[in-house]
Specification:
The chain is built from five helices and 17 strands. By secondary structure, the protein is α/β, with parallel strands linked by helices. The protein is globular, with a radius of gyration of 19 Å. Bound molecules: fe (ii) ion (FE2).
C-alpha cells in the first residue's frame, strides 16, 4: 500500500530567523566571521545570504536571543494548490504578501509542538550577490530543534510536508530529508529544553572547511567540538558558538540519497553498512563521533 500523497512537498530549507538583543553584533558575526553577504536591511530586519536566494538568515531585535522561531521552506507546487491541499488535510494556513523582501508570496502555517512559524513559498527573489571562493559557506544545511515528541514531529513532517525519514538515534533524535541531503530538519526529544538545538552551514570540501575554521580563529572563535565524523549522516562536523551562544555547526561530506527508489545513501568507504539505508542507531559514542570523544554536557535533554 502506498502512503497518501502529502499536501505539500518541501524541496529546500530556505531560511531561518534569529532574534537577538544585539543586531549589530550578530550581523557582524555573520558577515565577517562566517562571510555571509548582507543583502538588505529594513527598520526591523537584516537579510543575509550565502548565494543566489535573497536570504537564508534573517536577524531581528528582541529582548532575548532566540533561533528558529521562523523557518522558510521552498515547495514544489503552487501556493494555490498547497493551500487547498492543506485545508483538505485539516491544516490551517494563512496567505501573506507582507512578510518582507525576498518572499512576496508566502503560506504561513504553525509548526506543531514548537509553535514556530513555517513559511512555505515557491521561490525567493534573487539576491544579486556575486559568488566567492573564500570562507562563505556553500549553503544553509540544516537546523535542529528540541521537541517533546520526535515521533509526532516526524509524523507531521512526513505527512504534511513530504519529508522522508533518514535516521533515528535511540528513540530521541530523528533526522528528516526533503531532497537528496541526508537531513534538512532534525529533532531531539526534550521535556526541559526548547527552541533551536543547532544550525549547520555546509562547506564545499575539507579545504573549504579548514578555511572557514581558520577564519573563525582569526576572529577569536574557538571550536568546542570537532573536527569529528558523525555516524548519522556521516558528515565531518565542527561546532562553535556564535556571540549569542547559539550552537553553530560547520560541516562537509553529508550523506546524499540520489535515488529515492533505491532507498540507500550513496556508498562511502566510512559507512558501517552496505547499502547504507535509513537506520535506527543505538545511542553510543561512535554514533555521535566516529573519530573521538564527546565533550561533557554536549547532549542536553
Ligand atoms: Fe547537525
Amino acid at each position: 500500500m502506498t502512503a497518501p500523497e502529502p499536501p505539500v512537498r518541501v524541496t529546500k530549507l530556505g531560511y531561518v530567523s534569529f532574534e537577538t538583543p544585539d543586531v549589530a553584533r550578530l550581523t557582524e558575526y555573520y558577515t565577517k566571521v562566517l562571510g555571509f553577504a548582507l543583502v538588505e536591511e529594513t527598520t526591523s530586519q537584516v537579510f543575509l545570504t550565502t548565494g543566489g536566494d535573497h536570504h537564508c538568515i534573517t536577524i531581528e531585535k528582541a529582548e532575548v536571543s532566540r533561533g528558529r522561531n521562523v523557518i522558510g521552506y521552498e515547495i514544489r507546487e503552487s501556493l494555490d494548490n498547497a493551500q487547498l491541499r492543506l485545508k483538505e488535510a485539516g491544516l490551517a494556513s494563512e496567505r501573506r504578501t507582507d512578510i518582507g523582501p525576498g518572499t512576496p508570496d508566502v503560506l504561513v502555517i504553525e509548526e506543531p509542538l514548537t509553535g514556530s512559524a513555517l513559511h512555505l513559498y515557491e521561490e525567493q527573489s534573487r539576491s544579486g550577490v556575486d559568488s566567492t571562493f573564500d570562507h562563505r559557506p556553500n549553503k544553509l544545511g540544516h537546523v535542529a530543534a528540541y521537541t517533546p515528541s520526535p515521533r509526532d514531529m516526524r509524523s507531521f513532517y512526513e505527512g504534511a510536508l513530504g519529508f522522508r525519514w533518514s535516521d533515528t538515534v535511540g528513540d530521541f533524535f530523528v533526522f528528516l530529508r526533503c531532497n537528496a541531503d541526508h537531513h534538512a530538519a532534525n529533532f531531539m526529544q526534550s521535556t526541559t529544553m526548547q527552541g533551536m538545538h543547532h544550525i549547520a552551514y555546509e562547506a564545499r570540501d575539507l579545504t573549504h572547511l579548514q578555511t572557514m575554521i581558520d577564519n573563525l580563529n582569526k576572529h577569536d572563535y574557538r571550536l568546542y567540538w570537532g573536527p569529528g565524523r558523525h555516524s548519522v549522516g556521516h558528515n565531518i562536523f565542527t561546532y562553535h558558538e556564535d556571540p549569542d551562544g547559539n550552537h553553530i555547526e560547520l560541516f562537509t561530506q553529508l550523506d546524499v540519497m540520489l535515488d529515492e527508489d533505491n532507498g540507500y545513501f550513496e556508498p562511502r568507504p566510512w559507512h558501517e553498512h552496505f547499502p547504507m539505508r535509513p537506520t535506527t542507531w543505538e545511542a553510543d559514542l561512535a554514533v555521535m563521533n566516529k573519530w573521538g570523544p564527546i565533550p561533557d554536557g554536549m547532549i542536553k535533554r
